[in-house]
């Protein structure tokens, strides 16, 4: 464990900044929970198996930087230090133990499944006294949703810029207090662009976006397929989400004939046009959403060249390569997708 602690220590020092205390102790504790962080002290339970002990060690060690060096008000913005500690222990696992094949950072599929299972729709940017239940709400906000958002930001900005943002936070707030605007400003300065479009919805909306293929039409004279993807929760959010949504178009042999990722937000031109190869009829559209790959079977009317229509969702297609856990989440999402189909059928004229 000492060697592993050194590995994590040097990684965090490199990713964030210098460790500013004179000593660091890793202490075995005898409690029912996994570990605890105090300045200069990392507690790890004596009950833990090696893998879990290493996760706990790296998590509590990460708190030396996010909380003990870069301080924050844990009642109002506990998601900052807890979220970054979760992201950092996942980052350590990703780099140090890739063979574990665990899901390093909580994914949006797990956030979405949690939302469906518990009805918990907390926005992140709120104080603990606004939580309906400390255990479920705090766990959801701080340990699940926050690190998933930080990971999303890493994937959008790129790893180097994301790490530059962490270093800027360290330079500006070591032995000080950081709030969410300080986090946002550090990443804005690292990437050189305004990030309101990212931070406002992800930290202030209670619910996640929910994308749906709402219409499709095909003109065989020009081979143009036009589709419309919308966040069907758009009107319920205080802030509009804006993000890339992957789409694939398949032919009757279920071969991919077109694929792209489209930005979906309120200002996006709603129709996306695909140029389909000669003699090929688009047969299915796959929309990656809700923890599963939703498959829409396309069909066209006989009378008109352009016929708008709507879809049946085939829930059998999952994103390949998911872990067992995520397949479970996909299954939960699929139940929801089936509900959507039923609603659509009921609404059909
Ligand atoms: Zn923690």
Total number of helical segments?
Answer: 9
Helical content stands at: 40-55%
- List the domain count as a whole number: 2
The helix-strand sequence is HEEEHEHHHHEHHEEEEEEEEH
Strand composition percent:
15-25%
Strands of the widest sheet, in order across it, are 9-8-11-12-13
Describe this structure in words.
The N and C termini lie far apart (65 Å). The protein has two domains: 203 residues, Neutral Protease, domain 2 (Orthogonal Bundle), CATH 1.10.390; 137 residues, Immunoglobulin-like (Sandwich), CATH 2.60.40. The chain is built from nine helices and 13 strands. Helix 3 packs across helix 5 and helix 5 crosses helix 6. It has 349 residues and is an alpha+beta fold. The chain has a five-stranded antiparallel β-sheet with strand order 9-8-11-12-13. A three-stranded mixed β-sheet has the order 1-3-2. A three-stranded antiparallel β-sheet has the order 6-7-10, with no helix packed on it. Zinc ion binds next to helix 2 and helix 3.
Secondary structure elements and their pairing?
Blueprint: H1 2-15, E1 25-29, E2 35-38, E3 41-45, H2 50-65, E4 70-71, H3 74-96, H4 108-118, H5 134-157, H6 159-173, E5 176-177, H7 180-191, H8 196-204, E6 211-219, E7 224-231, E8 243-250, E9 256-264, E10 271-275, E11 284-289, E12 292-297, E13 312-314, H9 324-347
Parallel strand pairs: 1-3, 4-5
Antiparallel strand pairs: 2-3, 6-7, 7-10, 8-9, 8-11, 11-12, 12-13
Helix pairs in contact: 1-2, 1-3, 2-3, 3-5, 4-5, 4-9, 5-6, 6-7
The structure holds zinc ion (ZN).
């Amino acid at each position: 464990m000492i060697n592993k602690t050194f590995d994590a220590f040097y990684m965090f020092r490199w990713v964030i900044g210098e460790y500013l205390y004179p000593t660091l102790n890793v202490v075995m504790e005898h409690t029912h929970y996994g570990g605890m962080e105090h300045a200069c002290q990392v507690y790890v339970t004596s009950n833990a198996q090696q893998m879990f002990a290493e996760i706990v060690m790296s998590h509590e060690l990460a708190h030396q930087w996010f909380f003990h060096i870069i301080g924050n008000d844990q009642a109002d913005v506990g998601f900052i230090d807890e979220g970054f500690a979760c992201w950092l222990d996942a980052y350590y696992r990703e780099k140090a133990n890739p063979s574990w094949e665990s899901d390093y950072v909580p994914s949006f599929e797990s956030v979405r499944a949690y939302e469906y299972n518990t009805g918990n729709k907390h926005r992140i940017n709120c104080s603990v006294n606004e939580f309906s239940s400390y255990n479920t709400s705090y766990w959801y906000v701080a340990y699940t949703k926050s690190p998933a958002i930080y990971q999303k930001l890493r994937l959008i900005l790129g790893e180097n810029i994301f790490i530059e943002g962490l270093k800027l936070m360290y330079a500006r707030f070591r032995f000080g207090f950081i709030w969410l605007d300080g986090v946002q400003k550090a990443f804005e300065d690292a990437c050189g662009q305004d990030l309101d479009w990212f931070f406002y919805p992800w930290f202030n909306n209670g619910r996640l976006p929910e994308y749906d293929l709402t219409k499709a039409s095909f003109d065989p004279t020009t081979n143009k397929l036009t589709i419309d993807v919308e966040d069907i929760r758009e009107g319920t959010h205080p802030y509009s989400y804006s993000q890339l949504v992957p789409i694939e178009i398949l032919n009757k042999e279920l071969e991919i004939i077109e694929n792209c990722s489209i930005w979906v937000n309120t200002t996006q031109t709603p129709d996306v046009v695909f140029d389909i190869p000669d003699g090929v009829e688009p047969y299915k559209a796959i929309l990656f959403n809700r923890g599963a790959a939703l498959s829409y079977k396309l069909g066209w009317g006989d009378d008109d060249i352009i016929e708008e229509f709507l879809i049946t969702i085939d829930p059998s297609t999952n994103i390949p390569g998911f872990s067992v856990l995520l397949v479970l989440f996909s299954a939960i999402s699929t139940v929801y997708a089936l509900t959507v189909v039923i609603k659509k059928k009921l609404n059909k004229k």
